[in-house]
Amino acid sequence: MTLLLFLSLISYEESLFEVEEGRDLEILLDEMESLARHPLDINAAGFDDLVKILYLTPTDCLKIIEYRMVHGPYNTTEDVLYVPGFDEALYDKIRPFITVKAKPLRIEKCNVRLRSITELPRSDLSEEYYTRSEVKYGDYSMHLITEKDPYEHSFLDYYAVGFFASNDERRCALGKYNLDLGSGVLLSPVGSFLYSTDFRVITRERGLFPYTSVLENSGFFGAAYSDSLLLRYTVFVSQQKLDGRIDTLGFARSFDASGEHTDSLSQSRKDQINEQLFGYDAHYRISDLQISNRSYWCMYDPPFVCADSTTQFYGDKFWTTGIGLNYYAESFVIVSELARSFRNRIGGLFGFNGQFSSCDVQLAGKYFQTGFYSPKGVEADDDYIGGVLVVRHRSSIADIGVTVSIDGDTEADSAKYKVQFNFEKKLGMVNAKLQTRWRWYGGERDYASSRAFLRVTPFRHLFFDIRLEDKYVYDMNSVSTGLFAALEMGFEFKAVRARLRYGVFDTDDYDARLYIYETDLPGVIKNRMLYGDGHYGFI
Q1: How many whole angstroms separate alpha carbon 432 and alpha carbon 465?
Q2: DSSP string covering 288-355, please?
Q3: Which Pfam family is one of this chain's hits (predicted)?
Q4: What's the confidence (pLDDT) of residue 482?
Q5: Pairing of strands 314-315, 207-210
Q6: What pLDDT score does 10 carry?
Q7: Which of these, 538, 537, 525, 532, lies nearest to 23 by C-alpha position?
Q8: Cβ atoms of residues 220 and 179 within 8 Å
Q9: Mean pLDDT in residue range 513-536
Q10: Does domain 39-99 have CATH number 1.10.10.10?
């Protein structure tokens, strides 16, 4: 089932995960794996349940609920095709995660995942190992994560242990845990949709949950408690060691979330920074309006300035606090969050998702002052102001979408403008998708690319994919080009899932490098970077 889910994710919605920066997106995969094992009953699921399905926008969720209220219960899952704006392409994506009769919840008392990766020809210490063990007893569970990166000597170079208790709204965690609260500005391991994920991700607040990632400088270690009385609240405290080399001037080098140790120099950066945090989050809902406030104090010892990180993070002692306002209506959803961070820097975002005529509209905006940083949320190293507008239309003819975004650097008095067009059509055994993107900077076009995808399913268990991509980077009077083409074959039957890809690529230089979303082991999101020229594939 895990492999089936993972292939389903890759087959249809690569844009959710095909990003160039590192984010803790394995959290999303864990949620989808859980949904595949325990599909949602669409006759009982509410908005907070349906938004867990990443392929549904907030307005899609509202439509499912509205149709159920007007026409009565769904008889089969295929009845969602009668919901205005739903088509076969969308139904194929959400089908593994919905049902009309919920199955009894099967508690897996012991679940172990082991992953081993090596390279050929083999080099010393090139192996990578990962284990995730989960033991449950009633409302209690224990999680153990271990990882050995390449060039690390110990199998337990990284390990994380967490104890978790959950009873409806009441949750308690000891050891390693994670928090996802608000829209991502202050407390979210996934981050803002304005960077690598989108509106569907930030609408879903996961609250307090177990930490099952291998990002060594992320998450929390300590204790946390969440409950709901007059309001929903969470309190937490954390203290842990982070990786990063501090020089005599107080500058940190290579301070990032991954904490990977790929050579002897990076090994010397292990556990050099002490991080302490404590804080709270409170939510209060009045009818359709939700008001929230969150704040935490953090201290880093020794204090430092991160010199070679894109975040330009100042590790010191400071309070960070924020407020959020969310509004849930019958036909639209509004989310917003405003925060104050280190040295009183202000940052925030807002988002709107609604239905106009036959179009699904998403509108979002952001603003981050220079030096704004939230250690457990959004990262911003410039004075960014910008926004994004997404308009999508689904019909029996085709699925069409247009995205327009602007990212402004007010210090440099410049902005990047992006336009993206998406087209998808399913006709019988053929499913075709096309995506084109353009970007302008300083009034000049500096980037263009397009992707084409064609899937043919001649038999129930067998499919063939054709993938084409080109990329053009404009610099003064020169143009750098990147090209990629691949043929894939997939076979799915009962517990057997197989995938074969063979492709060729050709890029003029590093600027024209390509990021290709790649099928990997369950629970892994990998974007393969290709540059130069050659052959590429996997089994």
Answers
A1: 10
A2: TEEEEEEEEEEEEES-EEESSSTT--EES-EEEEEEEEEEE-SSEEEEEEEEE-GGG-EEEEEEEEEE
A3: HHH_3
A4: 95
A5: unpaired
A6: 38
A7: 525
A8: yes
A9: 79
A10: no
